[in-house]
Write a structure and sequence with these properties.
Elements (H helix, E strand, L loop, with lengths): L1 E4 L9 E3 L21 E4 L3 E7 L7 E7 L7 E5 L5 E7 L5 E7 L8 E4 L7 E6 L4 E6 L4 E8 L4 E9 L6 E4 L11 E8 L4 E7 L16 E2 L7 H5 L8 E2 L14 H13 L8 H5 L9 H4 L5 H9 L11 H8 L9 E4 L6 E2 L16 E2 L3 E5 L6 E6 L4 E2 L7 E3 L4 E7 L2 E9 L3 E6 L14 E4 L5 E6 L3 E2 L1 E6 L4 E5 L4 E6 L6 E6 L6 E5 L3 E5 L9 E4 L8 E5 L4 E7 L4 E8 L9 E7 L5 E5 L4 E5 L5 E7 L6 E3 L3 E2 L6 E4 L11 E8 L4 E7 L7 E2 L7 E2 L6 E2 H5 L8 E2 L7 E2 L15 H5 L4 H16 L21
Parallel strand pairs: 20-24, 31-53, 51-55
Antiparallel strand pairs: 1-16, 2-13, 3-6, 4-5, 6-7, 7-8, 8-9, 10-11, 11-12, 12-13, 14-15, 15-16, 17-18, 19-50, 21-22, 22-23, 23-25, 26-27, 27-28, 28-29, 30-32, 32-33, 33-34, 35-36, 36-37, 37-38, 39-40, 40-41, 41-42, 43-44, 44-45, 45-46, 45-47, 48-49, 49-50, 52-54
Helix pairs in contact: 5-9
């Protein structure tokens, strides 16, 4: 059995592989009734079975049996109309497991199968007609598919499907909505943070022109077998079964008496307005439930649009632009951003002896626009200094290094002096090293200066973004110290932490300092006013690690961390209201490494990845809901050991490159460029390149800042002299297309109408926001996708 997927606009596409498998009977509900199969969520360690007798229908008896040994969330559902059950939960060793039960022999499970050790609770979906069981863990991107044989008993894995987004919810599509002519036997809908992704399970057949009776026998219809009063009176009739053959689909519809009653009451009270509402338009076909045959009919705009989304999507949507926007929400200008590794000629290869076990508070290495510093694994805290202007294969012979003397805990380049490197060691000292002009030609043993004041190992160090000769450090002694480098002394000491300091960051204007620590607290300092925090607020729940960065002009704080179940997430705070908690929380995935955020203030795009990851998440951060707008992510073939971004000045604006990073592999260092696809590259894209801060020049000296002065960077344009801004480009008059009347008179098939409606909807979705003038030039040349 194979799987495939078709996603809505803006969704992720699943990729999978599968061996063939057999299927059996089928049954389903209508598209409007699509929901999770009947399941019971229990937090107990016992399964309880309740049943009613024919003689006493209101009285219930029951049985109880020990279920899953661990008390984490577990779920339970019936295996079709049989006397068997499926439960998913956790073992005593916290392994996820599946158990099969027979209610006629309820003393213990017939079969127990261990899945994995993931912490997320599994969502089970069972299709009684194919015998397929789909399992997906919340916060994960892996879908299991098993074939259940309760008579054996047996649980055989059919396939695994790895999707792009993490699962937030899961549901099955009714069998009457399946594409039977494509041999689609099952379809599940995966809910992610920003999309609803259909994942189809197909049985490979040589012929797709014929209807395969063995795959699609009659299934449960859409008309109820009895009414509520009859069921209470003891009626146990079953829903009539109908054919899945496209030519023999039922045409009858069911109108709920509850809906009819409501409409009659509304008619008695009289309408509140004279115009038709959106709800009335959606219900104008006259029934609360519609059969699939009516959905395939082009008699109404709503059903035609539903068919245009996909031949078997099973969704009824209004074609109005307003409803589409309400479903999909706003989109980012950078949603089509593409990351690619630059040519091999720009790589540094044959890197040897790298230290790949730097502390979690360290990025792993550091770089500026001229050179990179890489900690080595050898004793003595050696650091390799490589010039980015000299790419290629490094010699096999030993290269000159910095002899730091102790293991490196963090390191950082001075933004105003590209030749000065600050290194924090595990001996609670900070050493300042000066690289000679032309690069490191011989081993460097003596630092320019040594800063000493911390009592225990240092966590991290950061240079001041505005003032020169200022450095901040955090330590195991739970203090934050600010150093005046020109005087070689400690200028300020900040206190108030009760546990390990995970991360610290200066505000863009250099006036404030924010920290996040293991005690689950965010703290905001104004160092020149008080050594105690000005504000405190709740941080990430997990205690495994966290990072923070200032966003949106310094008015907001973005924090990456973990929740109590080790799911990685990002949180957005208003900097002046930390005690109120996060404005928005977005879960990403389950992984062990802390997400390292880099924020590009010119585009408001944040890049998130961790050491050992293969994926870089991109989000545009906005100060208004929904706060995070997802963009295309970048994926590499192998895990990276570090991912550090370079200054904006190295970007190639002629190729619409808005960010560049260095990706550290096992033995290579390769540049990764992030582009926005645009058609008219001959123009300077001034919406992507506003005047940028001249970050490489200090606004004032460190002693002036300590005395209470404030400074601000000047701004400079990145526009080359020979390029015209796209906002000033002449507008081209669109050529008017005349369609001959014969096109409207000719008879079109249903498939042609579906394709036309799909094209029209996608065109409107592509420009559903108020476009900027330069957005009309957005597009992708064919050669850019190669």
């Amino acid at each position: 059995m194979a799987t495939s997927s078709r996603a809505w606009p803006g969704s992720q596409t699943a990729a999978s592989s599968a061996p063939p498998a057999r299927t059996r009977n089928c049954g389903s509900l209508t598209p409007e009734q699509a929901q999770l199969p009947p399941s019971i969520r229990t937090h107990a360690r016992h399964l309880q079975l309740g049943f009613s007798t024919d003689q006493e229908p209101r009285e219930a008896a029951g049985e109880s049996v020990p279920g899953h040994e661990h008390n984490k969330d577990s779920r339970l559902l019936w295996i079709g109309s049989s006397d068997c059950l499926i439960s998913v939960g956790f073992s005593q060793m916290r392994e996820r497991e599946v158990k099969l039960w027979d209610t006629r022999r309820f003393s213990g499970a017939m079969l127990t199968v261990a899945l994995d050790t993931s912490p997320g609770a599994a969502i089970p979906l069972y299709d009684a007609d194919t015998g397929l069981l789909v399992l997906a863990g919340k916060g994960e991107n892996l879908l299991y598919c098993f074939e259940v044989a309760p008579a054996q008993p047996a649980l055989t894995q059919v396939t695994q499907c790895r999707t792009e987004g993490s699962t937030r919810g899961l549901a099955t599509v009714p069998r009457l909505a399946l594409d039977v002519m494509a041999c689609e036997v099952l379809r599940v809908l995966q809910l992610t943070d920003t999309a609803l992704v259909p994942v189809s399970y197909l049985v490979p057949r040589k012929s797709t022109q014929d209807f395969h009776e063995d795959l699609f026998p009659d299934c449960t219809g859409t008309l109820p077998a009895s009414g509520a009063q009859a069921w209470w009176a003891g009626d146990s009739q079953q829903v009539r079964r109908v054919s899945l053959h496209p030519a023999r689909r039922p045409t009858e519809t069911f109108s709920s008496p509850v809906i009819t009653c409501t409409r009659l009451q509304a008619a008695d009270t009289g309408p509140t307005n004279t115009g038709p509402t959106d709800t009335d338009a959606d219900r104008s076909e006259g029934s609360g439930y519609s059969s699939p045959s009516s959905l395939a009919s082009p008699s109404s705009a709503a059903t035609s649009l539903s068919a245009s989304i996909g031949p078997s999507s099973g969704f009824v949507s209004s074609p109005s632009q307003k409803s589409l926007q309400s479903i999909l929400g706003p989109s980012s200008r950078f949603r089509h951003a593409q990351g690619r590794v630059l040519h091999r000629d720009t790589h540094l290869t044959n890197l040897r002896g790298l230290s790949l076990t730097t502390p979690g508070e360290c990025d792993g290495f550091c770089a500026n626009h001229q050179r990179v510093a890489l900690p080595l694994l050898s004793a003595g805290g050696q650091i390799a200094i490589l010039e980015l202007s000299k790419p290629g294969r490094l010699p096999d012979a030993t290269v000159p290094t910095i002899q730091n003397g102790v293991a490196v805990s963090d390191l950082s380049w001075d933004p105003f002096d590209p030749w000065r490197l600050a290194v924090a060691g595990e001996d609670a000292k900070i050493r300042l090293w000066r690289i000679p002009k032309g690069g490191l030609q011989e081993t460097l043993c003596e630092p320019e200066a040594v800063l000493q004041g911390h009592m225990e190992k240092i966590y991290s160090i950061r240079f001041h973004p505005v003032a020169s000769d200022l450095l901040v450090s955090s330590s195991y002694d739970m203090t934050v110290r600010i150093w005046e480098l020109s005087a070689g002394r400690e200028a300020l000491c900040l206190r108030g932490h009760t546990d390990q300091i995970f991360s610290l960051a200066w505000s863009p204007d250099g006036k404030k300092l924010a920290t996040v620590s293991k005690d689950g607290r965010l703290r905001l300092y104004e160092p020149r006013r008080s050594p105690q925090p000005q504000q405190e607020g709740p941080g990430p729940e997990g205690s495994r690690g966290a990072r923070l960065v200032w966003v949106c002009g310094g008015d907001y704080l973005l924090v990456s961390g973990f929740d109590s179940r080790s799911e990685r997430r990002i949180l957005l705070y208003r900097a002046q209201a930390l005690p109120e908690g996060p404005l928005s929380v977005l879960g990403l995935d389950v992984a062990p490494s802390t997400l390292l955020p880099f924020y590009d203030e010119d585009t408001s795009v944040v890049f998130l990845t961790g050491k050992g990851d293969t994926r870089v998440f991109l989000y545009e951060v906005t100060p208004e809901p929904p706060y995070f707008l997802e963009c295309n992510s970048f994926a590499s073939n192998e895990p990276h050991k570090g991912f550090v971004f370079l200054p904006k000045t190295v970007c190639e604006v002629r190729e619409v490159e808005f960010a560049r990073a260095l990706r550290l592999g096992q033995s290579t260092l390769e540049p990764v460029a992030f582009h926005v696809p645009r058609v008219k590259k001959e123009y300077f894209q001034d919406d992507i390149y506003p005047p940028t801060r001249v970050w490489w020049e200090p606004a004032l000296g460190g002693s002036a800042w300590l005395a209470g002065e404030d400074g601000q960077h000047r701004r400079a344009s990145l526009r080359p002299a020979d390029m015209t801004p796209v906002s000033e480009a002449p507008k081209e008059a669109p050529a008017r297309k005349f369609v001959p009347a014969s096109v409207y008179l000719e008879e079109k098939s249903d498939e042609q109408k579906k394709e036309e409606l799909l094209s029209a909807m996608v065109a409107r979705l592509g420009n559903r926001d108020d476009p900027l003038p330069q957005d009309s030039f957005e597009g992708v040349d064919e050669d850019e996708w190669d």
